[in-house]
Specification:
- With 208 residues, this protein is mainly α.
- It contains six helices and no strands.
- 29% of the residues are buried.
């Protein structure tokens, strides 16, 4: 008996050569170059020059002086009035108490728009490495509670007599040390930034 005819598929030899490789379109290289250039430009933009940082720091120092000066002026006036009464070069105690009381109230952000602005102040990004946000927060603390306490101490001294006056004077001296220490801390931060940038500005003058 004859075997039925075979119907095997045609023979296809195995391919031994490599598959064709698709070439990267030239526009990909152009796009990649554009990304690199953009990255370089962004890097330059986020690294301001020393002169730019000096200008930004001068602006920052001016803002700090403007926002704190009314509170600082009150402290200065209160202490001047107390010294005048103590030295007997002035005798209007009522007016001196009014100066100290008004000055204390003016060192609260709730009563002083400039201090309220200071609470929400944002430091320029070019100055971020100097951590000047510590100065902003520190000046608010210098005003309230530090300067507020000092001026209330002045008012308490002017109202008191004898042993009560001596106790109020002791408290004033203690609170003045806190005020001075805070000023020294803030001045150190600002002076470090001034030295690094070559800025011409100076820290706000804070009495104590």
């Amino acid at each position: 008996m004859q075997s039925p005819p075979r119907a095997d598929p045609p023979y296809v030899p195995i391919r031994h050569t490599a598959w064709p490789v698709r070439r990267t379109p030239r526009w990909w290289f152009a796009a990649g170059a554009a990304v690199v250039v953009a990255g370089v430009l962004v890097g330059i933009a986020v690294h301001p020059s020393k002169a730019q940082r000096a200008g930004d720091l001068n602006g920052f120092l001016t803002d700090m002086k403007t926002d704190i000066q009314s509170c600082a002026g009150g402290v200065r006036d209160s202490l001047t009035a107390l010294r005048a009464i103590t030295a007997a070069t002035e005798n209007d105690v009522h007016t001196a108490i009014g100066i100290a009381t008004y000055g204390a109230n003016n060192c609260s952000p709730a009563n002083n728009m400039l201090l309220d602005d200071l609470v929400g102040y944002q430091v320029q990004e070019s100055l971020s490495s100097f951590r000047l946000d510590r100065v902003v927060y520190g000046l608010v603390d210098w005003a309230t509670p530090d300067a507020w306490r000092v001026q209330n101490d002045v008012a308490a001294i002017l109202r008191a007599q004898g042993a009560a006056r001596a106790a109020a004077t002791t408290k004033l001296n203690s609170d003045l040390k806190v005020l001075d220490a805070q000023r020294a801390y803030l001045d150190k931060i600002m002076m470090a930034a001034i030295t690094a940038t070559g800025a011409s500005g100076r820290p706000p003058p804070l009495p104590g």
